[in-house]
Amino acid sequence: MSSRSLSRLVTGATVALLAPVLSFVVAAPASAAELTGSIVVSVEVEGRTAPLDGWQLTLSSANCAVPTAATATTDSTGAATFDDLTMFADESSTTPCLYDVEQERRDGFEQDTDDAELTGLTAGTLVPATTSGIAVASASGVFVNPTRNPEPKGNVLDYKCLTGNGTSEVRSGWHPFWRDCSLAPQNQTGLGFTASPTPEGEELPLGESTVATLTHFNQTILRGVHNYDLVTSFTFADRATGQTQTVDRTYTVRIDETSDSGSAADCKYQGADVPNASYACADRLILEQPEDSVIDLGSALVDLHLSFGRMLPDGTCGATGDAAYTAERANTEFCLIAVTEGVSSVAPTAVTILNVADATTPGNSGLVSPGKPVAPTEPAGTTGPTGTTKPTEITEQTATPRPTETTAPTTQGGATAAPAAPERTTSALLATGGVLQPWLLAGGLTLAVGGVLLLALRARRTSTTD
């Protein structure tokens, strides 16, 4: 199994597979230190109608580098995003990068969101994948470039009786006694490739899965082929979108032919998994891999470092490895195993900044706090010589003819009772709900006092003449 990193992660909510004219959204980073995320800021205003666009934001970090675009401006919805932010400060994925967001203050508003809520922000949260979402829509493989290994003495002999070169099944080998091509194909040695597409409606499971079957036709022959290039083509499909990507990879299958005579104890390879027989030794198969076998499918990574897994009678695969052994005079099937790993996505960090209109700022006078009294309006008046406004004069009502006076009532002691004083002018004003200015109140009181004195004098004159 490949030791290359299948733990690589990729960001982005959009996943696309490609045909020849398409491309993946983003290549998976090689390490956690290259994993990136984003911070989404939403600006809101409260208290009065105001545009949400144009709010200036600045990003900073104490332990990680900040992208060139360290400033952002909100759009018409009040949103701004800082992208391509490194998530981890080291390769171990244990030290997160921490970021601070600062909003430029705007006249007429106070920031209601505390600055502490905008500090120490991460660039997102890893969301582990639970499925791959990927399937092998189709696959094929053909064998090309047949060669033989040198003989023990260094001679390089041609292979004989080759058939099927350039197809998914190849055969070769002279008749061991007649040394001609009279052997039937099923009695020749060779290799076969059979693709294993993902069943309709299913997807590749996370972990190991069979992507093809390799069969070694191991028969007793002379001058057979030792090495073939296996040229494969895998078409992967995204089950969610239906988009596809075709990946071509070439592997080399090497067959180490061993002695066809002797005892099992003398065979070249020994072990519990080596099927040596008393009449012939087991052959050994080796798969040589391309240098880069990890395929980035956006939502999943598939390691096409193929491994042998012996096909068991129940149709499952046994332990896998880069080498396998086959018994003489038998056809042995192997599962070709690939490893699929789901790609963790990154959910962006989201923060909201609330701004409240400042009622003390000019232009915000319409904002009145509950319970705040409204300033009274001064009564209308005329303009005096100096240009100042004089209060409207209060005039006495026009006198009406008095009825014939009757004798004033007397008190129990015989004194004449004083007539009731007329209602004070100020009472009429107060009854209207108006608010008297201090100078008006003083003037009214003066007039009232004068009226009382005048009535008192008249009553006194009346009492002396009667």
UniProtKB/TrEMBL annotation:
Biased composition (Low complexity): 375-422
Protein's UniProt keywords contain Zinc: no
Keywords, ordered alphabetically: Membrane, Signal, Transmembrane, Transmembrane helix
InterPro entries listed in its UniProt record: Choice_anch_K
Region annotation Disordered: where it falls in the sequence: 361-422
The keyword Signal appears for this protein: yes
Identification of the protein by name: Choice-of-anchor K domain-containing protein
UniProt signal peptide: 1-32
Transmembrane intervals: 439-457
